[in-house]
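Students often ask why we bother predicting the structure of a whole assembly rather than each chain alone. The short answer is interfaces. A chain on its own may look different once its partners are present, and contacts between molecules only exist in the joint model. In this exercise we take two input lines together and write out one structure for the complete complex. Read the inputs first and try to guess which parts will touch.
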Amino acid sequence: MPLVTKGPKPSQRKRRRLVMILSAMAVLALAAGLVLRALNDNLVFFMAPSDIQAGKIEPGRQFRLGGLVAENSVTKAADGLTIQFIVTDLVNETPVRFRGLLPDLFREGQGVIAEGRLDESGTFVATSVLAKHDEKYMPPEVAEALRKSGKWEEGSAGGDSP
Amino acid sequence: MLGSVPEIGHYALTLALGMAILAASLPMIGAARGDRRLIALSGPLTFGQLFFIGIAFASLTYSFVVSDFSVLTVAMNSHSAKPMLYKISGVWGNHEGSLLLWAFILALFASAVALFGSGLPAAFRARVLSVQAAIGVGFLLFMLLTSNPFDRLDPPPLDGNGLNPLLQDPGLAFHPPILYLGYVGFSIAFSFAIAALIEGKVTPAWARWVRPWTLTAWSFLTAGIALGSWWAYYELGWGGWWFWDPVENASFMPWLAGTALLHSVLVVEKRGAMKSWTILLAIMAFSLSLLGTFLVRSGVLTSVHAFAVDPARGVFILGFLALVIGGSLTLFAMRAHKLQPGGFFQPISREGALVFNNLILVTAVATVFFGTLYPLFLDALTGEKISVGAPYFKATFVPLMMPLILAMAIGPMMAWKRADLAGVLGRLKLAAGLTFIVVIIAAWQVTGGMTMALVGVALGTWLAAGVIGDLAGRIKLFRVPLGTSLRRAVGLPRNQWGVTLAHLGMAVAILGMTGAESWTTERLVVVREGEVVELAGYEFRFDGAEPVAGPNYTALRGHFSVFRDGELVTRLAPEDRTYANPRMQTTEAAIHSLFLGDLYAVIGDPDGSGGWSARLYIKPLVSWMWAGAGLMVFGGMLSISARRVRRKHSVRAGQPSPSAQAAE
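Now the answer. The structure tokens for the assembled complex follow.
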């Protein structure tokens, strides 16, 4: 082994170690600060229409809305691009407005998750309608929301054939 | 006879488990006792595992190819009308089959060590292969106890459920195997680390063995992640390329840890320092690979409840993870103090720069880890459902990377042991000037250039200029005649070229990400035949839409002609496909890549009165991301090839320890 074995004085080693530990702590503190700040601003809660009814979220705050797309509720505005539909957890309903192309998995009677905010009138303005790359038609959060609303029956929705 | 192929596969899997148990124990005992006969069993047992897992894998592939729906996995995930490529890729497009692929690649890597590791001390190699086999035992047991790919279905259905059409794509057909070559490749670094802990010593020779394997894993993982991102970009049809989705993060964390490992192993090799840290990183990289595999495959990501639906799997996975991570960390705690401290260095030195690299990368892993798993913990503990999306990662991961990219241009120019920072920065004056000019041009040229975009441009340019400046310095460009410089360039070690290209790839990728993230312009429109839509200097003319039929889908295909200054640039034909099995719609974006950006078109629904909704994008510099990733992979492979050449060379020259010449 060509490595120097006599090495530096122990005090030098100690100082090097101290420098490293201090810089590691500095970086970690920085990261912890970033994480805390980011969590404060960017946690996105998941809500069902009943949660909104219960006033769990104030207008203007970003969140995810989940539920079923109510049957016969999808309408297209005159511009051909703005879509309105109703998301239901079979107890309460929330109207949703979205401008854009809907994901491939979007269908009436199927589960949906949309991200956006409530406006003053109580309409949910979606910035994105999520199509998770997942082979199940029923997003688990939606299934959970339906279970909570007491309307869920195993196998009643979310099967493999819509 | 052919009807019992699944039973042959099942039987082979059981035999492989037996072999793995023997391989995990006998050579390990032999190495401890110095028993040569037991040590000699290591090679044959390793090849035996590969043979039997290979048979099992071939059996399952056969069942998929002939659409044997009496096999549950095949019935659940395949369909007789599917193109052959996707019948084969369907083998690993599900939980059971992907585990089998995992075990197969694990055995493949172990056999490669047995085959190419003739230069390793026999006892050490036996220990490495035993650890490798022990991991195999875990996977084979998991498969046989909870996820048998050869379970039969009686009576067999007439046809299968089919594969999710989104996954029926050439890009995604090869994404999992390449990703797994990366994941599983880190098992070698892990096995080497555990074997070194057992023996209580880490030497530069050890690092020289670990580095090519780590590079191999890293290169595959880089390629796998890039392929996945590319797939998301063109297949999901909304132009995104990275969503900070837990599934993506699961592969990104081992990549970050592996990148750190790649750099710290270098310090062990050249200077004999950072030994215990490197061992820890090897354990971490592989643990994150395991975690990634299980996160994606167990269903825990879609829901904690899905995990609880099959408690046997959940308990096994948690137990296995606890055993691997807990066991190796315990061993580490017991043995780390035995490792001799290595070469001393000043904070301002190449080693210091690499420590900085490791510090940032590991912190970055921690932030990604936290963001990915926090929602799971919160759900499991309180039942509250939250999601941590892209904004969190942009606010934590991205700022952490900035100093790293800044340092990336400086580090490779620093000398080992003690560097002259002022001198290095002096040599980077030109790069700094160039960066300044490019940022000014970008700010002036590109309207709506946000701060983040300019920061991205600055970092990418700085890194590229720094890397090229470093290269120019090494080949004495413009200081000696051009011919001499070229000769020097050819004569540079391939290792050096590897570093240069990989770092340059990073710079190119950063510019690509910046362009795609900040300068994308898009328009959502309803178009009628003959209508022209103007977007960022391009004119998209809609030429109508027509129905077309594919092998297992029907589609509506739209036609766009794209003009710039009256000249035809390209024609785009996006499709809106409807698959038959399972019944599902997918969007096939039409993409035309230019050097400076992509033209991207998606067609949506008809509005019923002759109009079609469509989404058009201009995405500047997107293809630079894939090009950058390609450069990184190429650089990695160059480095790997360099090592083998040098070893042969040094063996021929009769040098017992090539480390003397490697110490520069």
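Check your guess against this: The longest strand of chain B covers residues 538-549.
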